[in-house]
Amino acid sequence: MNDGDCVGEHRVDLLWSRLRYFGGTTGHWGGNCAPLDEQDFEERAWVPDSGWPFPKSELDASYPKAYEYCELPSANFSADYWAAQSASFRERRIALAGDPIGEKIMLKSPPTRFGEVYRTALSRAGNRCDVYLHANVVEIETTGEASRVTALRTRGIDGQTCRFRAGIYILASGIENARLLLLSNSVRPQGLGNDHDVVGRYFMAHTTLRTGRAMLSLPEGTASYYATLGWEQRFLSEVNPFIDALQPSRAAQQREGILNSVVFFEESYEGEKTPGFVAMRRIAKQIVHGRMPSNLVHDLGIVVGDLDEVVKALYARSFGDRSYKILQTRFFCEQAPDRDSRVMLGDDLDALGQRKLVLDWRLNDLDKRTIIRTQNLLAEQFGALGVGRLQVEFDSESDPWPKGVDSSAHFMGTTRMSTDPRRGVVDGDCRVHGIDNLYVAGGSVMPTSGATMVTVNIVALAVRLAGHLRSRLS
Amino acid sequence: MNRREILATAAAAGLLCASPGSARAVAAPPEARRLLALLRSPAAARRIGLAYLETSVDEADPAKLVALIVGDGVDRGTADGDLLRHVAERQRADFAAGRTVKLDGWVLSRTEARLYALAAV
């Protein structure tokens, strides 16, 4: 049911990246957390369709609870604080000037698997909360003029249908929120909340690209403080409780006219970007996920054809041979809101007889410029500090996107927030415009994505929504 | 120019090495010899320098390159250590001011690119 088609230049894996079970995609998230930045909420002249209905200060009150739900080791996101806590980090911390490049600390959740951690509390008697599993919502039913929701119709794989009635309804299912609004078209042919053709539009992800490499004169182990968790580190008993990401300052973003972004380091070995090694990794990834590798024969052919490079890379990684080690830069960027980047309903039907999603993920020139300018800023900063040099691979805005652009499986937008119904699906309270008792929670309401991990921000938005509903119901 | 050449050419902190190397002699001016002595791997520097000169043909003159590399504040009496610090500082200033060139993707300061070019002329 999660599967769908991707059209256009950039593809995402709709099937693997989403989990349709209690707890949702917290079942496989990496656990990195940081709040959005102030500028993420502001209307920036160089970022069309930017700006939230409220400033960051309004969400700040909801973060402490969100950190608690995500089981963070601290609520302190200051690099100076963590340098004071850790002598090892203090010795290895890159002395960035703050402008043009500063630091953004991301704290690590265990990660919290919400379905496991909170299941017991939700099933406890007397908590005024009933959980129904395998009840797939297939339609939102409304009054004749679609101003109020009257029920949610569900259907199980076994064909059994139910109707759930409540005073308030909240959709909290990523890009399925948009799909459900579009599918609920018995009263409004274009779908609910879609009088201005905004539902499904402004799909955003975090544009992620591993490109370029660094030659730095830094103590051994420095990269571990600036890297997201690699697969080999997942087996370590102790990992750093934070990541210190490199981030263009707010002033630099404005000067350069670019989006927000952060940069991580990734240690890899020569040969790991060759087609053979990439094909081998593709096969291994599918096996690890319990799937029969697609295109197995084709991929094996590539591995065999590139065997010397594959063996060299495997040897270097297995024995940690430093002479083959490469420090790669991984850019993780806010995506420019784009009305034409969207999810739609396709013609194919899923197991419940519902039209599947079609995704048209589009990146534009601002997305390209952000990566290219950020890597130049980084190179200049490293040089100015005397730390080292950067080799860039993706160098011109006129060049096509390189292979390997990834979404980080962070799907946002599609029911965006705006005070103007022509520009957004929900208002500042996350209520669907024109429908009195229908709300949306999750990354789909975010008008801009920022350059941070989404989960803790989704939780903060949920805490804020809960506060609003508590006030409304009281 | 690959990573190993870059590594062979330069110490990452400043792309220069304080200990005298085996730079080849150049005709003039005398500061050129001292500048080339700062390079860790003159052979690799020449390859990078040739790439730079392809983009800046008008700088293919040792005297001009020396003047551009050291600027003001250095004379024959300047000690090697001070010369190294002076050039390293000019590199940092280049980066801070955005005076950079890209050679095979490596983002280098104009000063260091000229230093490599000096090894090539």
Walk across the major sheet of chain A and give the strand order. 10-11-8-14
| Number of strand elements of chain B | 2
pLDDT under 50 segments of chain A (min length 5)? none
How many strands, what sense, and barrel or not for the largest sheet of chain B?
2 strands, antiparallel
Any idea what the radius of gyration of chain B is? 13 Å
Shape descriptor of chain A reads: globular
Q: What does the radius of gyration of chain A come to?
A: 23 Å
Strand percentage of chain A = 15-25%
Put simply, the count of helices of chain B is 6
Can you walk me through this structure?
The complex is a heterodimer of chains A (474) and B (121). Chain A is α+β, with helices and mostly antiparallel strands and 474 residues long. Chain A is 27% helix and 19% strand. A 4-stranded antiparallel sheet of chain A has the order 10-11-8-14. In chain A, strand 5 (149-155) and strand 6 (161-164) form a beta hairpin. In chain A, helix 3 crosses helix 14. The longest helix of chain A has 21 residues, at 365-385. Chain A is globular and about 70 Å long. The model of chain A has no long low-confidence stretch (mean pLDDT 92). By secondary structure, chain B is mainly alpha-helical. Helices cover 55% and strands 7% of the residues of chain B. Chain B has 6 helices and 2 strands, in the order αααααββα. Chain B has helices at residues 3-9, 30-36, 42-55, 62-70, 80-97, 110-120, and strands spanning 100-103, 106-109. Chain B has a two-stranded antiparallel ribbon with strand order 1-2. In chain B, helix 3 (42-55) crosses helix 6 (110-120). The longest helix of chain B is centred in the last third of the chain and has 18 residues, at 80-97. Mean pLDDT of chain B is 79; it is low at 11-26. Chain A binds chain B through residues 212-213, 215-217, 326, 376, 379-393, 395, and chain B through 3, 6-7, 10-15, 88, 91-96, 98, 100, 102, 104-109.
